[in-house]
Amino acid sequence: MTSLQSYVCGRWVAGTGDAKTLHEPATAAVIGDVRPGGIDFAAAHQHAMQKGGPALRAMGFQKRGEMLKALAAKLHEHRDELIEIAARNGGNTRGDAKFDLDGASGTLAFYANLAAAMPAGNCLPDGEGLQLGRTPRFWGQHIFVPRPGVAVHINAFNFPAWGMGEKMACALLAGVPVIEKAGTPSAMLAYRIAQLVVDSGLVPEGAFQFLPGSVTGLLDLLGPMDTVAFTGSAKTGALIRSNQNLIARNVRVNVEADSINSAILGPDVESGSDTLEQFLANVTIDMTQKAGQKCTAVRRILVPAAMVEEVQEALRERLQAVKIGNPLDGDVRMGPVASADQLRDVRTGIDRLSALSDTLLGGSKPMEGPGYFVHPTLLRAKDTSAALLHELEVFGPCATILPYSGNVDEATDLCNRGGGSLVASAYSDDRAFVEQLVLGISPWHGRVWLGSEKTQGQALGPGAVLPGTIHGGPGRAGGGEELGGLRGLHPYMQRTAVQGDRAVVGRLFGSEGG
Ligand code: NAP
User: Fold this and answer.
1) How many C-beta atoms surround the C-beta of residue 245 within 10 A?
2) pLDDT averaged over consecutive 10-residue blocks of the chain (514 residues)?
3) To 10 degrees, the CA torsion angle through 97, 328, 182, 23?
């Protein structure tokens, strides 16, 4: 039984107040707890501002990059131990845990590599300089500089390693200290990573603080140089956005929320083709990886009516072959969902969607034995225009087939009814269909992933978030944006236009000579 502590103001602090228990999702056994109170948030904020920030900025981009590289190596060194914790407290299979952990170390390493090509100091030119006066003598240059504030990162339970790692990588490289809040149900993995970060001595004191409990009260202390980056449900995201202090002081808030992602099969795709195989494989992975608890997982599967029978049979067969059980068993491919609350929410959600659909596989009925297990559930919509199909995120191994005519406008309309999503994937070798679809759905999506004969076997599926391209989406997906190479640093930096003598502006801050 582990009682998780917070790391604030340079020491580990036990929480106070009522304990929230942590469970092993495969057995429902209690294995730890978190107490939310007893943290002096004002002192933690000051500690970050006065100690962590200046120490980080004294390092410059390149040295901070070296720090990220060493952190990535530290996580990798402890990979086996961390996989075990992810299985124990997160219900992750070995593959799920690697996806999370390698995502974290891979993103840290990606930003370390970017840093190697950045300036030694703290100033990043943004684009080319430009003439602003009658002659080139009066010159302008946009620059990015680190904001002397604190990054408060509120993470979701489903990616305790990657979620914290990707946010940390961007803020620390930008030169901004972090306060990391873990999602409670799976907080043991984030806690162990926090211990490794602190014990490594790689991050200057004050630049990394960790909270496994609550952040209630912290947001009321933040000021204009601070940034809040939240990942979680749309409901909590809206609550954070409406915090009066954050509004009054124009604190930057980035929200990564939930999303009703779709996979679209093009009308040209035929039985036995590589494109169909890619579609079936990716949908199966998306539905079962992390037991469907991925913000990018497919929830709506758009299939031309002529292919529906074949696709539903093929998916049913593949999903039935996925071995479900205790993730500590090596051959298990899908574990339980993360908590009793999750189990309840997923079952309720399946019931609500089932009322509008035919159940092709699974359903909300309990599984035998202990733990928070859910059947992989494949539904087929009776009426694709039913609003709930496009609004309800069942955060588990459940997706709904939406038959459509094969017409690109209909596919576009159905896909965009999600109200703003993180990702849509489309599988087609018909370039005219793809082009029209991409242009139609892009305004409503942060990412569009295209599968075709040519890309079979070439890339990770649409569920994987890659640090070189942006993650986030408009509307209900939160309206936020993370990662995307250097773009990921922008929430933590101020873009300033410097205007003046070209010799000064160009030479000091830009790529232009004077
Ligand atoms: P959640 O319940 O909204 O919680 C997210 C985080 O917010 C947790 O750390 C939670 O702490 C904290 N929190 C809860 N109430 C808060 C409040 N009033 N003020 C400040 N923080 C608060 O979401 P979740 O259940 O952890 O995660 C699942 C959801 O996240 C899904 O809907 C999924 O789609 C979404 N998600 C989105 C992305 C993305 O990148 N867009 C990625 C992953 C997950 P406690 O755990 O202590 O309550």
Assistant:
1) 12
2) 94 94 96 93 98 98 98 97 96 96 98 95 94 94 97 97 98 98 96 98 98 93 98 94 97 96 98 96 97 97 98 98 93 96 97 98 93 97 97 97 98 97 98 98 98 90 96 96 97 97 85 46
3) 160
Distance 499 CA to ligand 1 centre (A): 42
Ligand 1 centroid–CA 352 distance in Å is 22
Provide the pLDDT for residue 511: 57
Its CATH architecture, for the domain 59-126+143-257+480-493, is 3-Layer(aba) Sandwich (3.40)
Kindly report the protein residue whose alpha carbon is nearest to atom 32 of ligand 1: 233
Same fold, 59-126+143-257+480-493 and 261-468: no
Q: What b/e string do you get for 191-212 counting C-beta neighbours within 10 Å, with b at 16 or more?
A: bbbbebbbebebbbebbbbbbb
Q: Whose CA is nearest to atom 47 of ligand 1?
A: 184
- Which residues are designated catalytic? 256, 295
Atom of ligand 1 nearest to the CA of 157: 26
Mutate to test the pocket of ligand 1, among 157, 170, 242 (most ligand atoms within 8 A of CB): 157
Helix (H, G, I), strand (E, B) or coil at 178: strand
Position 507 scores a pLDDT of: 78
Which protein residue has the closest C-alpha to ligand 1 atom 42?
Answer: 295
Residue owning the nearest CA to atom 23 of ligand 1: 232
Q: How far is C-alpha 202 from the chain's CA centre?
A: 25
- The CB of 231 under 6 Å from ligand 1? The reply is yes
Question: Strands 398-404, 298-304: parallel, antiparallel or unpaired by DSSP?
Answer: parallel
Architecture of 261-468 per CATH? 3-Layer(aba) Sandwich (3.40)
Q: Is 295 in the pocket of ligand 1 (CB under 6 A)?
A: yes
Rounded to whole angstroms, the Cα distance separating 81 from 87 reads 10
User: Going by C-beta distance under 8 Å and a sequence separation of 6 or more, which residues neighbour residue 223?
Assistant: 149, 249, 251
366 exposure class (CB count in 10 Å sphere: 0-12, 13-18, 19+): exposed
155 C-beta closer than 6 A to ligand 1: yes
Point out the ligand 1 atom lying closest to the alpha carbon of residue 235: 3
Contact between 105 and 83 under an 8 Å Cβ cutoff? The reply is: no
**Rounded-to-integer distance, Cα 474 and Cα 472, Å:** 7
Which secondary structure element, helix H or strand E, spans residue 53, and what is its range?
Answer: helix 53-77
Is the CB of residue 236 below 6 angstroms from any atom belonging to ligand 1?
A: yes
Rg (CA), the chain: 24
Pairwise CA distance, residues 209 & 264, whole Å: 42
The residue ranges of every structural domain in the chain are 59-126+143-257+480-493, 261-468
**CB environment 391-402: b (16+ within 10 A), e (fewer):** ebbbbbbbbbbb
CB 510 within 8 A of CB 499: no
